[in-house]
Amino acid sequence: LLFPVSNLCGKCRPRDTDLLQPSLNFLYCSLHQTTPCSQQRAVAVLLSNVSLLELLQKVLEGTWLWSPPSEPAYLSSEDALLCSGWLLIASLLLYQHRYNTEVHQTLSLDLTEVLNAVIFRKKKPILLLVSIMQFLRAVLRQNFSSSLLVIVGQNAARGATQPQPSSLQDAALHPLAMWQVFSLVISLQNLLVQKDLLLSQAVVACLETLAEYLHVKNQDVALHVASQPWHRFLLFTLLSGGQKSFLQPEVLRLMALFLRYQSSNIISQKEISQILQEAEEANLAELPEATSRALYLFLSQV
């Protein structure tokens, strides 16, 4: 089935949403729901289909032309197709790297446009933001060096209103610029305070991956970003209201992240003690799996 469906996609136009959207979902599920042996073959089939990859290029470029719908909570068929396209590309990046699969057609994406899709989100649907963040995580984990992807528009000028970071910092973080890193972090924090479960999981995961990327590129920059005082305000916002709020998975993962980068001005001994006390009083067997994993991560960092 994978072969004819991928060929069918390659014959479609980006506006054929009724056919493309379920087809791309099928390809995505085929990659994730199969055995490792079949997964490697599935990746090879998809990456050998030049028409499919050319179509995905056109679909993703529709993100830059996105305009807010009349109903903010409404996920249109075009939005759904964008979500499927970003998720599929993120998966292809992941598995192409894992299996070192041969690439027959590269994709070209403007890094500035991708970042701006999150930074200047214009009331984008949550699922679309989550899908783009999955892609961002994939390229960050691969250090922007995938043989499937060509990054263009690196450090493009954005006018006089943007801060002018030092060239040494930009060189260390290439292809990111320092102002892009800070803008992205602030935007992710703003998304996190919306307290949407799906969005929170994606945002925290993206922050973790970004911190790892920065740490590899320049440890001083990573520590500088992690120790910004606005992180403490973010924690206060996330902890406002509710009982045992310290045991929220996104809070625990953020705490673990700050501990990892030694941000003592963000998380104090008092917060650590409160988490330990809440964990002691909780019935650990009844905690959700996401909370258990986050608590384990936090305790490991402690």
Key structural traits:
302 residues; mainly alpha; two-stranded parallel sheet; 15 helices; 2 strands; 65% helix; MEI1 protein
Question: Can you characterise this structure?
Answer:
The structure is a single chain. The protein is mainly α and 302 residues long. It has 15 helices and two strands. A two-stranded parallel ribbon has the order 1-2. α10 (197-217) runs parallel beside α13 (249-260). The longest helix has 23 residues, at 77-99. The radius of gyration is 20 Å and the shape is globular. The model is unreliable at 155-165 (pLDDT under 50). One of its GO terms (biological process) is meiosis I.
Strand content: under 5%
* Side-by-side strand order of the widest sheet: 1-2
Radius of gyration, in Å, reads 20 Å
Oligomer: single chain
**Average residue-wise pLDDT:** 89
Approximately how much helix is present in the residues? Answer: 55-70%
User: In sequence order, what are the helices and strands, one letter per element?
Assistant: HHHHHEHHEHHHHHHHH
Overall shape: it is globular
Estimated structural class: mainly alpha
Euclidean distance between termini CA atoms = 49 Å
Main β-sheet description? 2 strands, parallel
Number of strands: 2
Number of H/I helices: 15
Give unreliable regions as ranges: 155-165
Short description:
The protein has helices spanning 2-10, 17-32, 36-47, 50-61, 77-99, 111-119, 126-141, 167-173, 178-192, 197-217, 219-226, 230-238, 249-260, 269-281, 289-301, and strands at 107-110, 149-152. It is mainly alpha-helical. 36% of the residues are buried.
